[in-house]
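pinned: reference chain
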Amino acid sequence: MATLVKRNHWVVRVTHWVNVVAIVLMAGSGMRIFNAHPRFARPGERFALNPWEGRPIPDWLTFGGWLAGARHWHFAMMWLLVANGLLYLGFLFFHGEWRDIVPRRGDARDAWQMLRFYLFVRRDHPLQGKHNALQKSAYFAMPLLGILIVLSGLAIWKPVTLAFITRLFVNYKWARFVHFLAMALLLLLALVHVFMVFSVDPYSLRAIVTGWYDRARSPEARNARPFYHLFGPAREAPASREVPPV
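pinned: its C-alpha cells
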C-alpha cells in the first residue's frame, strides 16, 4: 500500500511560512514598543496582574531599533498578518479543511489518551487521523488568538476612533494587557508546536515544505513519543493496525 500522500495544500504551506515571519517580527517589534512604557498602568498607578510592572523586556528579544522603527514594522506586519489570516481561514472554509481542526465530541477523551501516552502510562499510540486531539486543540486555538490580537491591537492603535472596539476590552489599559497576553499565549503555542515537530514528528517538515507526507513514518506508525530515540528504538504499532488516511 502506498504510504506517500499529499498532506498540505500549497495555500496552507505559503500561509504557514508567512505567519512565521509576520508573527516573529510582530512579537519583536511589539516588545520594543512596550519597552517605551513597560507597564500597563498609567504613570503613578500599578497593574496588579503584572508583577514585573516597570521592568523592560530584554533588548535581545525586541526588534525595530527604536520606538518609531518598531511601530513601522509592527503595523506593516499587522496588515500582512490580517491578509494572510483571511486567506488561510477562507481556504479552510471553502476547501473543507476546517473539519481537520474543529473540536468534536470525544476530543477531550482522545487528548487525555495522548497525554497518557506521552507520560508513558499508555504503551500504544492512540489512533488518530491527520492530527491528534492535542494538535487539533492547538491549531483551533491559534486563529482565535490571532483574532483577539488583531481586535485588541486595533483598540490600542485607535482608542478614540475605534472606541467601540476598545470598550470590548473595558478600556485602553485592559486592551493593552489582553493584546500582550494573547501574543504571549500564541508564542507559547508556537514554541510547543515547534518542539513537538522536532521531538515527535520531524518527518512532517517535508509536508509543510513540499506538501508530501509518508504515513509509514507518522508518530502513530512509529509509536513515537517526544525524543523517543533517546529511550531506545520505537516499538512498532501492532501489525493489525492500519494507519488512517491523512
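why pinned: The longest strand covers residues 4-6. Confidence is low (pLDDT under 50) at residues 232-241.
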